[in-house]
Amino acid sequence: MSLNKGVAKRDIDPLFHMLAIGAYEGRQLFTRENVARVLCLDGRDDVQGSSSQDRAGTALLTERSSPFPPATVYVSSLGNVFMNEIAHDLAHDLSCSGIRVSIENETSALPSRAALSIVVAPHEFFWLGRGTTWMRDDVLPNMFVYNTEQLHTPWFAKALLPILAAKGVLDMSPQVARLLREAGMRSMHFEPSSSLRTRWLEEADADHPLFRALPRDARRIEIDVDEWDNRPIDVSFFGTESSSRESFFAGNAERLAKWSSFIYYRRHSRGPIKNSLNDRALTRIAGHVAGYSKISLNIHRDEFPFFEWHRIVRQCMASGSVVVSDPCLPHPQLKPGEHYFEEEPRQIPNLIDWLLRDTEGQREARRVRDNASEHLKRNGDRRLQVSELLKRLSE
């Protein structure tokens, strides 16, 4: 009521207005103080890695994978290219566990009740194009949704109604997954598998202006993920503008200019990176640049420091780059000082100087990078978490 005072003046139930109108319009649904309060969760996840659990997970996978029907992962054809990548990663994990998986979009036929259906990015799928016709009482309760959005954003508001109506929820954030479970919902934190990548680009990407702007030594298509000391780019960043990022880059422009830097700072006016447009090459170029960067920056969009898996893990760690971030919410497996570095924004330039110029700092950079690489190599065996996912999907 305090966020939308006009609702209080009307003869309408505030909760109904929030779900039927406010969420659809992408209004702010929660005060920032309440968001900050609920995010004081510890970030631990239900799934912890150990050899005994690996064996239990393998048995569970063997037990449960056979009765599963073919699965369909749905993702909007009109949405952000990142969501398309996540959908393919999820489908890959399921297929590696012996399930036949297809990827469809909002133009496909509606699924049957018996089908195993997972919708990636419900804030896009159910609101763009023909996806609006899927918002039905005989469809949503039979589907799982995979939420990728942060709690305080207008995109989470758009996802809220499908989240509440769905059969169950997978969530990119351990904090949001735990919050939904505590509210009585079937929810699980799940991140798709990610592995070290030696190549990101397609042949046509060599003609992209950003690729042609790279240093000559960074134009080799194949990446040596084990090599770090001789990478031609000191610091790189790919992301969309925000007031927090504006303050960071403007305040540190002089320091950044002293390093070999590659900064792609996308203005809001350009819109999201769509899978259907030519600029979808940007996500591949971002991974390629990380593969030739000693340090990849992660600067949060605002004051809520969600662990940004797509940039930190899928893009930067997977390319063998050292991640430097402002402080993140806790992650169940990846720890600051062990798998990445985190520091207050005003101190990040000093940290970068230490990692690049100081002998001890360089040694620490290699240690942390090696830890991250080892995590990704182990992460290639997804039996435990995927078996837990199958368990949740079959309940």
Helix/strand structural class: alpha/beta
Major sheet strand order? 2-1-3-4-5-6
- Reading the helices and strands in chain order gives HHHHEHEEHEHEHEHEHHEHEHEEHHH
Largest sheet: 6 strands, parallel
Question: With helices defined by DSSP (H or I, 4 residues minimum), what is the helix count?
Answer: 16
Mean pLDDT: 85
> What is the radius of gyration computed over CA atoms, rounded to a whole number of angstroms?
21 Å
The low-pLDDT segments are: 41-66
Percent of residues in helical segments?
A: 25-40%
Q: In total, how many beta strands?
A: 11
Write down the overall geometry: globular
N- to C-terminal separation? 37 Å
- Strand % is 5-15%
Structure overview:
With 395 residues, the chain is α/β, with parallel strands linked by helices. The protein contains 16 helices and eleven strands. The protein has helices spanning 5-8, 14-22, 32-38, 51-65, 81-96, 122-125, 154-165, 174-182, 209-212, 243-251, 253-257, 281-291, 309-316, 348-357, 359-379, 383-394; strands at residues 71-74, 101-104, 116-120, 144-147, 168-171, 187-189, 233-240, 261-266, 293-298, 322-325, 341-342. Helix 4 (51-65) packs across helix 16 and helix 14 (348-357) packs across helix 15 (359-379). The longest helix is centred in the last third of the chain and has 21 residues, at 359-379. The protein is globular and about 60 Å long.
